[in-house]
Amino acid sequence: MDDDTSTLTRAKKSLFPDLEKASDRNHVIKNFTSGLYKLRESNKYLTVAIISYFRKCFSYATVQNVGNPVGVRDNILAIVPHVYGDHSKCGDWCKEAEVLNYKHSYKYMGGNDLNNQSLRVVLDRYLERYTTDDMTHKLSNLGSTNGNENMNSMIARKAPKGINYSESESLESRISAAIAQKNKGHQYIIDVNEVHGLSPGKSTRKRFTSLDIRCRKKAERAATVQHKRRRLQLKEERPNVNRVREVEEGTTYTSGVSHIEEADTNEVPSAPDRPKPASEHYSLNDLVVFDLETTGGGDNDSILQILACHLERGTCFTRYAIPTSSYINHHITTLTGLEYHGRTMYKDAQAVDACEIGVALGDFKEWIHNLNTKEPILVAHNASFDGRMLNNAFQRHSVTCSRCVKRYADTLPYFKTKYPGRKGKGAYTLSSLVHEYLPGKQFSFHDADEDVRGLSELLISSHINEEDLKCHLTSVEELTYKSLLKTNKMENIGSYNRAVKNKNISIIVSEKLAESGLGLDHLKTVAGRSGADGVKTLLKSRCGQCRFNVEDIMSEL
C-alpha cells in the first residue's frame, strides 16, 4: 500500500498488531523526488535534469537490491559520489568502467561530473535519511499497488460509484464477476454459461477469446523496456504540455475572472499538430505514376494538365484544365508547349479539349476509384511538389479525395538510393536518369505524357519491389502539414527581421517560430502575460533543441 493512508493502523487494530506492510515503490520514489524539488527552492544549481537523474539512480538502488538492506544502503550512499566523479563505491548499475570518457545521462553541463561542493553537502544530508536501518529494510521490500488499482478499476466498471448498487441485491454478483475476470479473464463468462447448461454461442466465445488475447498482448507490451521508457517520456512531457497551454491561452478559469474587465483573452496560436507517418505497407498493384503541368510553383498557381498511369496495368488518364486566371505566361508555354487563347487551350499549337479544373479533379478521382486497388499510391519524381499542388487543388475546389488518395511516393530519393554516386548538378533529374539508364529512348521532358512514360519505364527497369519505396512514402496529412508550415513562415518571418539583425534571435529560431504560427507580437503577448518564464516555456515547445537566450529575446519585446 502507499504511505498516505491510515489503512495499516486500522488493519492492525482489526486483525493482529504484528501486521507489516510493503510500501508502494512508485509512492516511495515520488516522495523522494518531491523532497529534491523542495531542496531546489534554495539551491539553484539543483536543476530538473539533475533531479531526474537522482530519481533514476535511487530507483536502481531499490530495484537491484530486493531483500538486501545492506545493498540498498551502499548503493544510496554511492549516488552522490557517483555524480561527483567518484565511482569507487558504485555497483553494477554504473557503466563508468565499461565506457570510455563516461558521461552522465543528464544534459546539464554536458553530462560532466558536478563540482558544486555546497550542493554536495545538501545532497549528502538529504540521502542520509534513506540509509537508516528501518528505512533500508523498508526500501528492500517494496511492492506495487498496481494490482489493487486494477482490481478497483474492474469493480468500478461492474458497479459504478455513480449508481447506488451498495443497497441492491446485484452488488455481490457484480463484485464476484470482477474477481472472476481478474483471476480468469473474460473466459469466466463462457465457464459460467457452461456450468449452467447454457451455450455461450460462437460469437460470444470468439469475442471474449479475442479480448483475452488483446489484454495479454497489452500486458506483454507494457513489460518491455521500450514501452516503459516511452511511458516515462510522456509522463515528463505532460506537465510541460499543460504549462504551454496556459501560456498560449492565458487565464481561462480562476475565481472572479468574469469580473475582471481587463482579463487577458488574447490567444497565442497553437503549434500545428504533426501528423503520424504514412503507413509503409503497399503492393506494386497500388502504384499509380502521375505528373502535373502547372502555371508555376506557388500555392495559388493553376494546374494545366493531369496525367496518370497505373504502373502494372498501363491504363492511363489525362485531362487538360483551363487556368483559373485564363492566362499562361510565355516561360511556361516555352517549357510545356501549353497555351490558352480565346477560350481554347493549345498543346504544341494544336487545339486540345480542356475543362474547368474542378471537373478535371472529379474525373481524376473517379478514375482512381475505378482502378479497384486496395489503397492507390500516387508516384511522382519530386512528389513534394506535385503532391502539394494536387492536394491544394483538391482542397481549393472542395473535391473530397480522402478515400482514394491517401499517400504519395517520391522517386527522387529512391533513385538516389538505387543509383548512388552520381555527381554534378541535375544528376538525378528525370531526363538525366532516362538518358543514363534507358539508352536509345527519346523523351520530351516538361511534357506530362512523356514524364509519366519515362518514369514508369525507369521504375520497371530498376526492378522495383514492394520494399523499395517504404522509406519514401508521404501521407496527404504530412503534405498538408508541410504546406501549412510554409504558409505560416511566409506570414510571420518578416516580424523577426529587426531581432535577427540585432542578433537577439538566430535565423533558425526565427524560422522555427514563424513556421509554428508565431510572430513577434505573439511573443510580446506571452511576455506581458507570463514574463520571461512564459517566453522560455513557449520557445522550448516550438524550437526543440535550438539554442536561444531568453534575456536577448526579452530585450526585443
* Widest sheet: strand ordering: 7-3-2-1-8-9-10
Regions with little confidence, pLDDT below 50 for 5+ residues: none
- The CATH topology annotation of the largest domain reads as Nucleotidyltransferase, domain 5
What share of the residues lie within helices? 40-55%
CATH superfamily of the largest domain, called what? Ribonuclease H-like superfamily/Ribonuclease H
Return the domain count: 3
Alpha carbon gap, first and last residue: 51 Å
Largest sheet: 7 strands, mixed
Give the gist of this structure.
This protein has 557 residues and is of the alpha/beta class. The protein is 51% helix and 8% strand. It has three domains: 7-139, no CATH class; 224-251 and 265-275 and 477-557, no CATH class; 284-465, Nucleotidyltransferase, domain 5.
Description of the molecule:
It is a single chain. This protein has 557 residues and is α/β, with parallel strands linked by helices. The protein has three domains: 7-139, no CATH class; 224-251 and 265-275 and 477-557, no CATH class; 284-465, Nucleotidyltransferase, domain 5. The chain has helices at 7-14, 25-40, 48-63, 69-83, 117-128, 133-139, 146-158, 171-184, 187-195, 202-222, 225-249, 330-336, 357-370, 383-396, 411-418, 430-437, 448-461, 476-492, 497-501, 507-515, 520-543, 550-555; strands at residues 287-294, 303-310, 316-321, 338-341, 344-347, 350-352, 354-355, 377-380, 407-410, 473-475. The protein is extended.
Q: Features of this protein?
A:
3 domains; 3-stranded antiparallel β-sheet; 8% strand; 557 residues; single chain; alpha/beta; Nucleotidyltransferase, domain 5
